[in-house]
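Ticket #4471: complex job returned nothing on first submit. Input attached below:
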Amino acid sequence: MALQNDKINTANLKSFFPFFKHNPDLTYLDNAATTQICQPALTAINEYYCRSHSNVHRSSHTTAKANTNQFEQVRQKLAHWLNADSSKEIIWTKGATEAANLLAYSLSNQFSSGDEVITSITEHHANFVTWQQMCIKLNLKLKIVRLTDDLKIDLTHLESLITPKTKVLALAHVANATGVKQPIEEAISIAREINPETLCVIDGSQAVCHLNLDVKQIDADFYFFSGHKMFAGTGIGVLYGKQIRLEQLNPFHFGGEMVNQVSVEATSFNQLPYKFEAGTPNIAAVFALGATVDFLSEIQTDTVRQRESQLIDYLLHQLQQVPNLSILAKHDLVGAVSFNISNWHPSDVSEILSQMNIALRVGKHCAMPLFNEINQDGSVRVSISLYNDKQDIDKLIAALLDLENFL
Amino acid sequence: MTQLYSEQAQSLIDFFQQQNGWEYRYRHLMKLAAKLEKIAPENLSDDKKIDGCETNVWMQFDCSNTFNFTANCEARIMSGILYLLQAALNQQTLQYVSEFNLSIYLNQLGLANHFSESRTNGLKSIEAQIKKHAIR
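Support reply: We reran it on our side without changes. The output follows.
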């Protein structure tokens, strides 16, 4: 791949992301919304379309066969990267949102009126609205687990919510609005202890580029994330599912290549993982994801991980030097810090910072139920990634200190 | 392109045009927020909320004689913009308001280029409400 001849300088990781070359004056701190695409992913997309564009799983000419092989190799690569048992457990989706919708839809025939789904208010809408709407449609009971003062799932409350009727526990690994890493392993084991049939669904969108993921260790039934939040570009997501669970699911979309036999009267469906992948997939994006995983396997060393966690500590420390700034949650932060400044509406902060070339996100971060409870105005969220450095944080802090000159 | 303005709006345009740099324009916009004529608290209700704005905006219109509106917004920059609209439109004839071109005004103030797509969309919703009340 592209990196082989390059000496990897982990001190300046921005050089692997062309965005920064084209936006040298921008301080990009909106990584929880999307991360920049890495050069290896761009190269993979370009090479696919320039040199080998043809379909997968259908035609038998040379480029088509080579593509199919490469396409399935990426699936194996992802299975290995996540420590899944088999590449059958890796389903390609458009992104995390489609993965959540696939699950809610495909599981729906396993539920009956009165069954229960448990989620929390700190979920992204993708993992909240999806289940809420399924509950409304099927007359299921949506139970909301409370949060502790540091905005983590309240495990004692969770324990009290699980019953023999609990079918799904849907939680985020890292909350997108606050950056708080949730105690998902404990939550899963509590749920299984009380009701072993509870399907545990984890949204890993905000964890995937910050934590080493091991789906066996996490032990969720389903775990999903988006490629664009791990430097691979948009249009691709991964749904991991335990094989035994995936086999119980109905197909989500119908169409080509997800079938086995079709007659006028009936259709039998293809085996895993293909029964969930109707139609021509986003081949270029899969190749980009594969190239990204190779890239990350090379550069995401312990040193890089450690530097990132030190940067979050530095960010947290520096933010606390800004007058009138209150941080939503300070413990177990992964990749992001969310805060408010008294007497400042978040949208004013964002607008002025944007004029200062600082990119971050304000508002309710697709987590309205959370902000309805804690702050109607939403918050300011700063989110870092492996390519950010102390200078980025220093520019942010200088800009925040400058805000009072606007009053 | 230009259009005729109230004395108050013209002096705001003159002031904004003298400001070199976005910092000064924004600083002034935030100061103007304090001048916004607000909806009386007892009249503030959800049906006055304007859809499509980044931050919550409420507007109340009184077009019994000339055009007049009061407005509330939680954010300062948007409140400043609403004040700019009050300066240009309040106490004008309904005819004037119905023909008023908001984007020319914002361009002359030197603000249009600073606004994001979602801010511009919010302003379009506000403009639509204004026109709806002026053209009856």
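The longest strand of chain B covers residues 57-62. Closing as resolved unless it happens again.
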